[in-house]
Every structure is written in structure tokens, then in C-alpha cells.
Write a structure and sequence with these properties.
FAD/NAD(P)-binding domain, binds NADP nicotinamide-adenine-dinucleotide phosphate, 5-stranded parallel β-sheet, 15 helices, alpha/beta, 20 strands
Length: 533
């Protein structure tokens, strides 16, 4: 039966989001015998892999590192066709999971949660959809992802444009025919880089509006051979073990040797070897000093700049595409498959926004401080109001009538990234550490399932972070962040891509294993730092 036709609206658990996290949370809730409903604004399951169906969208994580780890049968049944799976395949995978585990009967699609309110008497959450429908549950789990609130800058005259405006994070499900069109792309982050590379050869003319050039590095994708497929299946236990042990949940370890054990010449040869590797090896498996020592970081950045220069025919243009204003690794590295070569094409041009900023959008296109450009399509690859945006855009009201948006006006405050004081039984099921999905999301989902089981087994009504534990966690997280290169750049990591948003590191910057150990320790000690009522 279509869940939206079901008369019941009272559940043990309501989950917002049917993406990677929400699907597993649903699976575990059902396994625990709880009544559960998932609401998702999308027309299908998949979360980020449903919405980001823009041309060129693809994993930057190795496919074998991305599948769920919790079902041996699933691991056995699913074949990845490419080492870095393209978006359609990943969306297919998540649909397969939904069918394979019969999850759909508890998922209501096209169901956007508009507001949620905690009732202090019943100690339950009531949830309201944009359709006016209501439901209530003891536990509310926000499995909304960190990058689901799309962000479009408020350019003057943005509504005046008469052509087609698109955001990559809300790409039309039926696709868009860009052939023969004059297309603008604003934004050169990981999304813009994938999209630009894919569409350049189809459009009549592509104009890229770049604010900050990035240290883009080759993805080096290729098909998975049958032998490799078999190898994944035979070694998943080891692969998963490795994912749980590495600092960021990828298949990479930093080198155990120091950069200073090598001469400058030897380091250069070493960088060449790194460069030839696929994926994030360039970021996560080099010398540890690349991420801790400014001189070594600058040396590696210089190596990458030269790699970029070598790929662009016009040296003046090349300099515009070379990042110089932030250290390597302080922004997420876009992985690419022929990105820089795109700029050697006659039908592609680059507008450097720091030299000639956008003044306004017009009926026919974009006006910069230098000139007006006419377009048929403007694509905003301008990113997301990350981490907090998906939560604060809903009107979530806690015990004192305070909304999450109000509580976090001066910066995000949680305990362990999982719960926030004043909002009992509201679990934030997003991966708040720097860590590859879904291996780290699985840990968060399992922790939440464990906490719910604990509350119910002890006949309690609620679990809530104490203000003291939360304050200590916020302070500890800020202290860790103060040692990180990430604050040297403006990025969604720092919230600084959103005008007016407090500038602070939004993700917990300790290693994923350390984060996991802390969460497990808190649970093992009877949920220390939480009020159980
Ligand atoms: P992003 O990294 O935040 O990049 C947004 C781009 O838009 C940047 O180039 C930014 O310039 C530009 N921009 C923002 N506001 C602007 C303005 N007012 N005027 C001009 N330019 C503006 O967003 P994203 O590329 O969508 O990537 C976000 C995250 O999604 C990634 O870090 C990654 O975690 C995830 N992602 C993953 C994959 C994958 O795994 N395959 C692929 C794509 C994205 P500045 O740099 O100057 O701010």
C-alpha cells in the first residue's frame, strides 16, 4: 500500500530523509520492531543521489568503499561497473536496496517536512508536512544529509533572467538538452568541475564564472573488470576494516614516513607517483606534513600548480586557473576527468570574478563590471548551505519554543553532533566528522538505534544532551579546529560560503576512529552527558 494512504500517523520513529542514512536507519528501526515512517521531499529514494543528477555527477570515493557494509547478501549481489560510480548507478543501487529490503512501504515520498514541534507533556514530536498532513512520533531522526540545502547567491535581478536557471543540486529529473545552447556555469567547486567537463563539448558556448580556482586533480576512473569485482567481493571484510581504521574512512593512509626524510628531488619523484594514483590518494595518502607543515604544503601545491599549467595551451589563461590564495587541502579537492583541457576549446571561456565581479542578472544574461553576456541557460553550481542548512530551513521547535535556527544563530551547538540541548529525542543522523559515506554514517545510524533501544528498554521517555556536555563538546571541537588548515580558506566546511553564516568549522576535525571511539564510550557509560528522563 502507498504509505501516504495509510490512516495511521502515530509512530515510534519518524525519519526525515530517504537517502543513504535514512534508508539504513529505517532498516534498523524496523528490525527493532518499531513503527516507523520516513518522509522525503523527493519523488524517489536516494537523497543526494536523487537530486544531484546533473551531467557528469560521479563518486569521488572508490565504489567499493561506498556501498553499505551491513548486508553480506547485498555485498555479494551488487556489482559496481566503474571504480568511481556515476550518479545514475549510485541512484540505482539505493533503489535496489530499498526494494531488496522492502523499505518502500514505510517511505512517503513527495513529502516535505515543513515544521516539527516537541510537546513537553507527551514528550513526543509532532511533524507537519507542506501538504498540511501531520504525524507524531516519540523519536525524530533528521537524516537530511550535510549537503542537501542548495544555495543560490542572491544576485541582483536574479528573477529578471528570461532563459532557464538551474541549480545543480535540484537538477531536473528528465534532464536538460543543452545542445547548441549558450550556457553559463557559476561555480568551480567539485560539482562545477564535473559538470563543466561533461557539457563543454555539447553546448554552443560555455562561459565559466570562477571566483576561486581549485587544486583539481585527476580522478582516473575506469571500468571494474570481472576479476576486480570478484576481488572486492572476496576481500570486503578487509576493505571495511581498512575504512574503519583510516582517518577519513577512505582506503588511504598517510605515509608513515616524514617528508623530511627525503631530499627535494626525491619528494618531487614521490609527488609524481601520487599524481598517477586514482581518487583522493593525492590528498589523503601523501606525506603527513602536506596537511600539517606550511612549507611542505606549499611545495606540493607548487607541484600541482605546474601540473595545471602544463595542461592549458594559453599561459595567461592557465595562470587564472591556478589556485594561489589558499593552501592545498584547505578546500575539498575536486577530482576531474579532463577538466583543464576544456579550457583549450574554442567554445569555452572563463570569466574571473575577482577581477570582474557579477553586478547583476539581466533578462538576457549576466552583467559583470566589464561587460554584458547573453545566455540561454544559467547553471548555478554554487553549492550548499551545508550541515546546518537542511535542519534550520525546517521550523524545528524544541522545549522552550526556540527553533534550531534561533539556537544556532551564533553557530552550531550539539553534543557529539548527534543531539542538541533543548531538543529531546531529536537525533541528527548526519555524518558530522570528516568521513567517507556511508561507512561513517552507518556508525551514526547504529549509535542512534542503540540510544533509542536504551531509552525504550529502560521505559524512559526521552534522551537529551545536557547543556554542560554540549558546551564542552563545542569547546573541544573549536580547539581541534583551531589547528586545522581548513580555516585558511573560505568553504562550506567553514560555513563561509553563505553570507551572514557564522564562520566556524562545521565538521568535527578529529579522526573518524577517534570520533567513533568517543561515541561508543559515551554509550557504554550509560549515555554520559545526556539527560535520560
Ligand atoms: P562548493 O564546493 O561550495 O562550490 C561552490 C562554487 O560556487 C565555488 O566555486 C564558489 O566559489 C562558487 N560560488 C559560491 N557563491 C558564489 C558567488 N556568490 N559568486 C560566485 N561564485 C560563487 O559546492 P559544490 O561544488 O557543489 O560541492 C560541495 C560539496 O559537495 C563538495 O565539497 C563535496 O563534498 C560534495 N560533492 C561531492 C561529489 C562527489 O563525491 N562526487 C561531487 C560534487 C560535490 P568560492 O570557492 O570562491 O566560494
Amino acid at each position: 500500500m502507498n504509505p501516504s494512504n495509510r490512516p495511521d500517523s502515530t509512530f515510534d520513529v519518524i525519519i526525515i530523509g530517504a537517502g543513504v542514512t535514512g534508508l539504513y536507519q529505517l532498516y534498523l528501526a524496523r528490525k527493532a520492531g518499531l513503527s516507523v515512517r520516513v518522509f522525503d521531499a523527493a519523488g524517489g529514494v536516494g537523497g543526494t543521489w536523487y537530486w544531484n543528477c546533473y551531467p557528469g555527477c560521479c563518486f569521488d570515493s572508490e565504489s567499493e568503499s561506498y556501498g553499505y557494509t551491513w548486508s553480506k547478501a547485498l555485498l555479494e549481489e551488487w556489482d559496481w561497473t566503474e571504480h568511481f560510480s556515476p550518479q545514475p548507478e549510485t541512484e540505482r543501487y539505493l533503489n535496489y536496496v530499498a526494494d531488496r529490503f522492502d523499505l518502500r512501504r514505510d517511505i512517503q515520498l513527495n513529502a516535505r517536512v515543513q515544521a516539527a514541534r516537541f510537546d513537553t507533556k507527551t514528550r513526543r514530536w509532532s511533524v507537519q508536512l507542506t501538504t498540511g498532513e501531520r504525524a507524531s512520533a516519540q523519536f525524530l531522526i533528521a537524516a537530511v544529509g550535510v549537503l542537501s540545502a542548495d544555495y543560490t547567491p542572491e544576485f541582483v535581478g536574479i528573477k529578471d533572467f528570461k532563459g532557464l536557471s538551474l541549480h545543480t543540486g535540484r537538477w531536473p529529473r528528465d534532464g536538460v538538452d543543452l545542445r547548441g545552447k549558450r550556457v553559463a556555469v557559476i561555480g568551480t567547486g567539485p560539482t562545477g568541475v564535473q559538470l563543466i567537463t561533461k557539457i563543454a563539448r555539447d553546448v554552443a558556448h560555455l562561459t565559466v564564472f570562477q571566483r576561486t580556482p581549485n587544486y583539481c586533480a585527476p580522478l582516473r576512473n575506469r571500468p571494474v573488470t570481472p576479476a576486480e569485482q570478484q576481488h572486492f567481493k572476496a576481500t570486503y571484510a578487509e576493505i571495511h576494516q581498512q575504512l574503519r581504521e583510516t582517518p577519513a574512512g577512505f582506503l588511504y593512509h598517510f605515509d608513515t614516513r616524514s617528508a623530511f626524510e627525503f631530499s627535494a628531488e626525491e619528494r618531487l619523484a614521490y609527488y609524481e607517483k601520487l599524481w598517477a594514483l586514482p581518487g583522493f590518494a593525492k590528498w589523503l595518502s601523501g606525506f603527513p606534513e602536506v596537511m600539517t607543515n606550511r612549507a611542505i604544503n606549499e611545495e606540493f601545491a607548487g607541484f600541482l600548480r605546474n601540473k595545471i599549467r602544463a595542461r592549458i595551451n594559453d599561459p595567461v589563461l592557465a595562470e587564472k586557473l591556478v589556485p594561489k590564495n589558499h593552501p592545498f587541502g584547505s578546500k575539498r579537492i575536486p577530482l576531474e576527468s579532463g577538466y583543464f583541457e576544456v579550457y583549450n576549446r574554442d567554445n569555452v571561456s572563463l570569466v574571473e570574478l575577482l577581477e570582474t565581479p557579477i553586478q547583476r542578472m539581466t533578462a538576457s544574461g549576466i552583467e559583470t563590471s566589464e561587460r554584458a553576456y547573453a545566455f540561454d541557460v544559467i547553471i548555478y553550481a554554487t553549492g550548499f548551505d551545508a550541515v546546518t542548512g537542511p535542519l534550520t530551513r525546517m521550523n524545528i521547535e524544541g522545549v522552550n519554543g526556540q527553533t534550531l535556527g534561533e539556537k544556532w544563530a551564533d553557530g552550531v551547538r550539539t553534543y557529539l553532533g548527534l543531539l542538541t540541548a533543548g531538543f529531546p529525542n531529536l537525533f541528527i543522523a548526519t555524518n558530522s566528522a570528516f568521513c567517507n559515506y556511508p561507512v561513517c554514517a552507518e556508525m551514526v545510524v547504529e549509535w542512534i538505534a542503540g540510544a533509542i533501544a536504551h531509552v525504550r528498554a529502560n521505559n524512559l521517555a526521552s534522551i537529551e544532551a545536557t547543556p554542560e556536555a554540549e558546551a564542552a563538546w563545542v569547546e573541544h571541537s573549536a580547539e581541534l579546529a583551531s589547528h586545522s588548515f581548513l580555516s585558511d580558506a573560505n568553504s562550506w566546511f567553514m560555513g563561509s560560503n553563505i553570507p551572514g553564516k557564522k564562520r566556524a568549522l562545521l565538521l568535527y576535525s578529529n579522526s573518524a576512529p577517534a570520533y567513533r571511539a568517543k561515541c561508543e564510550e559515551v554509550a557504554a557509560h550509560g549515555y554520559q552527558g545526556f539527560t535520560l528522563q
